[in-house]
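Supplementary Note 3. Input sequence used for the single-chain structure prediction.
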Amino acid sequence: MFAIENPLFILYVRLIGWTLLGYVLGKLLPKSYTTYLGKLLLFGFVPISIISFLRQADLSGWIVIAPTTAWVAILVGAGLAWIWIDLGLSDERFKKLSRGITSQEKNFDNFPTSEQALAEDSAWSGATQGSFLLAMTLGNTAFMGYPVSLALVGPQYFAWSLFYDLIGSTIAAYSVGIALASRFGSMSSNHQAPNPFISMAKTPALWSLPIGLGMRFIPLPTVVTSSMNAIAWTTVTLSLVMIGMQLSQLKTLRNVKQALTCLSIKMLLTPLVVGTGLMFFGVTGEPRMAMVLQMAMPPAFSTLVIAQAYNLDRDLTVTTLAFGVVLLLFTIPIWLWLFS
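The predicted structure, written as C-alpha cells, is reproduced below.
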C-alpha cells in the first residue's frame, strides 16, 4: 500500500502543487519577475542552503567513494553529451555542404568559427549547447535526490547521497556549471567570453562550501539553525515555483527532441554504465543503490537558475526539467529491479 506518509508521495504532491502555482503566477506576473527570482536563488538562498545542509551532514565512514562516483558520472555524462552535440553539428554541416555551401563557409577547422557560421539557423547554437551540457551533467541530487534516497534506501545510507551531492554535484554546479554558462552564454550574446575562473570566484554558493564546513564546529542558537533550515527547504519550493513560471512562458515545443535525447543519456545510459562499473570496485547493495538513484535524478533546478542568469536556452532547460520529473516516475522501478 502506498501510504500518504511516503516521502516520494509527499514529494510528488509538492512538485505538482507548487509547479502549478508557479504556472499561474507566470501567467499573471510580468516576465521580469522570473529573472528576479532566479538571481535571488543563485546569489542568496542557494548559498544559505548549502551551509545548512553541510552543518547537518554526517561525514564519517568511507563515503569518499560517493563524491568520486559523482564526478565520474558527471564526466561520463558530459562526454556523451559532447559527442552527441558534435554529431548534430557534423550532420548540419554535411547538409549544408550537400546543398552547395560556398568554400568560405566550409572553414570548420576552428570550432568557434564554425559555430558562429551556423549560429543563426543551427539547432545547436551556443546557448543550446550550454543548456544541453548543463542538464546532462548536473542532476537534482538534493531537492529530489534526498527524499528519494531516504524513501528507497533508508536513513542509514543517507550519508552516501548527501556526500554525493555536496562534494560532487554542488561543487560541479557552481564550478563546471558556471564555467559552461559563462562560456556558452557569452557566445550566444556575441560578447567576449569572460574568464570562467573569475566567474566562479564571484559565485557566493562556491564560497559557502568552506564556510559551511567551518561552521560545522561552531554552535549556533537554535533559532539561527532553524531559520537556515527553513530557508534551505524554502529554496526547494521557490525552485518549483520558478519551474512553473518558466513553463507558462514557453511558446513552442521545438526542443522536445533535444530534451528527450538529453534525458535518455542523463537518466538512463549514464546510471547504467557507472552503476554497473561500481560492481567491479566492490561497491554493491544499498550504497550503490543510493548513488545510482542520485545519478538517475532529473536535471537540477540550478540549471534553470544558471540558465536564467547567463541567458542560455531557457526553453530547452525548462523542457528537460519538466520531462525529467515525469520520466523519474518511470525510471525508479528500473533501478530497483537492476541494482537492489
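The first helix runs from residue 7 to 28. The domain at 7-31+61-207+239-247+255-339 is CATH 1.20.1530 (Na+/H+ antiporter like fold).
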